[in-house]
Amino acid sequence: MGLLSIGTPLEWKNIKKYAYQIRKRGVRQFINIHRKIKDRKNDCLKWGDEVEFILVKFDHKNKRCQLLLKANQLLPILQGPENRDEKCLTLWRPEYANFMVEGTPGEPYQHNISFFNRVEANMSLRRKQVQEILGDNEFIMSVTAFPMMGDPNFTFPSHPTTPGKGISQSLFFSDQAIQDCHPRYHCLTRNIRERRKRKVVINVPIFVDENTPRPFIEDLTQYGDDEKSDTESKLAAKLDHIYLDASGFGMGCCCLQMTFQAQSLEEARHLYDQLTPLTPIMLALSASSPIWRGYLADIDCRWNILSGACDDRTLEELGEEPLKENVRKIKKSRYGTIDSYLSEENQKFNDLEFEKDDELCKDLIENGIDGPLA
């Protein structure tokens, strides 16, 4: 993640008029970088992991567990050695929610097989470093999706939601749960909602057994008294589904991520293609989020929830209204699966249609970028 250290991020209404120019400049920047490094070879293969952790507080007396809104207090302590230019075995970064922290190794691992022996110890050290500065009955955990996230009073301290106003305008997810030590997250949440011109809509199929009401219809009026928000939520919620209405439900999930630096551009494209069929298998093997807002779901993977949480498409781009303000329909969220293989030898496997900007694609090809990469 690129950290914004100075300046103020723009709201969508101000970004909108510059959006295409930003895209054009981004393509131009890519062309300049590609021209500079396209023939570079023999860089050292490097790799590393990022683990997102959640913070929880246990109330043993009342048999209750809540997400602990304390990351903004812990991060200055965890980042202290790095800020003092000390050699660090671990590095720490803010994440979307104030109940999350992200830890990485202090420097990348390299291609030698001996580096595999360092991974588990470093992950263990990260957990230990956070646990040592937590209070009584406070713990760091590796949980993909907190089962009661979005339930009333799911955070400690507890904060009321603000349906119809504020950043997310959610019935279930309070704005105070969003990390406030970095301006990116508030702005990202607001801009997704403003670009969509409505709240985020995520419907997770409910698990049906003999005790499940049929149809399953939740009374959403108990969560808010804002008439506009109540009406919007009622129209968005589907029968037999768990309704989620905030970006925090996806970006408040945790995962393990891997980053690679290949020795050349050619190797990077080959590695990308080789990982493509492996990643959905790994996603299925690591699926661990069967509960949302306290309801048992008929799915157990977070990916579609994350994708929906960052889906900023308008109704026109979804194909639900005729195109007027927007250029084209877009078939999936920007947090979506990949569309194509990148290496020349794997083009025979590309059998999906995908949207592209013809003008920008033409600019790339005319400046020496081959078709698959363009």
Automatic annotation (TrEMBL):
This is Glutamate--cysteine ligase. Its EC number is 6.3.2.2. It is an enzyme of class 6 (ligase). The lineage of its organism: Eukaryota, Metazoa, Spiralia, Gnathifera, Rotifera. It catalyses: L-cysteine + L-glutamate + ATP = gamma-L-glutamyl-L-cysteine + ADP + phosphate + H(+). It comes from the Eukaryota. GO terms for molecular function: ATP binding; glutamate-cysteine ligase activity. Pathway: Sulfur metabolism; glutathione biosynthesis; glutathione from L-cysteine and L-glutamate: step 1/2. Keywords: ATP-binding, Glutathione biosynthesis, Ligase, Nucleotide-binding. GO terms for cellular component: glutamate-cysteine ligase complex. One of its GO terms (biological process) is glutathione biosynthetic process. InterPro entries: GCS, Gln_synth/guanido_kin_cat_dom. Belongs to the glutamate--cysteine ligase type 3 family. PANTHER family: GLUTAMATE CYSTEINE LIGASE, GLUTAMATE--CYSTEINE LIGASE CATALYTIC SUBUNIT. Signal peptide: none annotated.
